[in-house]
Amino acid sequence: MAGEHDRWQVAPDGGRVSARTCDHLELLHALRPHERPRSEETASTDRRAGEPVPAREAVASPGRVPPPDVARCADCEARGLRWVRLRWCVTCGYVGCCDSSRAGHAHAHHVATGHPLVLSLAPDEHWAWCYPDELFLVRATAS
Ligand SMILES: [Zn+2]
Ligand SMILES: [Zn+2]
Ligand SMILES: [Zn+2]
Q1: Which domain holds residue 123?
Q2: 20 to 30 A from 112, CA-CA: which of 49, 64, 130, 143?
Q3: What is the pLDDT of residues 58-102, one digit of tens each?
């Protein structure tokens, strides 16, 4: 488990003329891996025994990627809408739905806050998206 220091890079894109960079990569480098089930964490040093963290807190924690099974678009849920895929705001931990979802709460969150990066929480998507730079970002260590 060396995931804590995953390096991120701009996804290679043959369609672009010039190599573009993203100044927001450091946000991703500060991330910590998925919150693991409590049973596995009891021996960990950064959590006191007997203080279980509710799942909701994991969803809203900046710096901690929520596991997909607890992530949900709260704004959709409040309105009884369904979402397609979820995006996680790297800056504040907001979870919102993707542009293919009816409400597009992740993009709306970026517009409202200016937070630049979202990480896809879809199990089959392993990238982050930078709104200001319009770039996909991927783990350099992905095999
Ligand atoms: Zn960027
Ligand atoms: Zn939504
Ligand atoms: Zn945010």
Answers
A1: 1-8+20-33+60-143
A2: 64
A3: 445 667 788 877 899 999 999 999 999 999 999 999 999 999 999
Residue pair 66/43 in contact by the 8 Å Cβ criterion: no
Tell me how far apart the alpha carbons of residues 105 and 95 are, in angstroms, rounded to a whole number.
Answer: 8
Q: Are strands 135-139 and 8-10 parallel, antiparallel or unpaired?
A: antiparallel
Give every CB contact of residue 125 below 8 A, 6+ residues apart in sequence: 85
* Alpha carbon of 84 to ligand 3 centroid (Å): 19
Distance separating alpha carbons of residues 104 and 87, to the nearest angstrom: 10
Q: What CATH number has the domain bearing residue 121?
A: 3.30.40.10
Closest ligand by atom to 131 CA: 1
Q: Which ligand has the minimum distance to the alpha carbon of residue 86?
A: 2
Q: What is the pTM of this model?
A: 0.75
What's the gap in Å between 102 CA and the centre of ligand 1? 25
Proximal ligand: closest to the CA of 119 = 3
Give the number of the ligand closest to the Cα of residue 89.
3
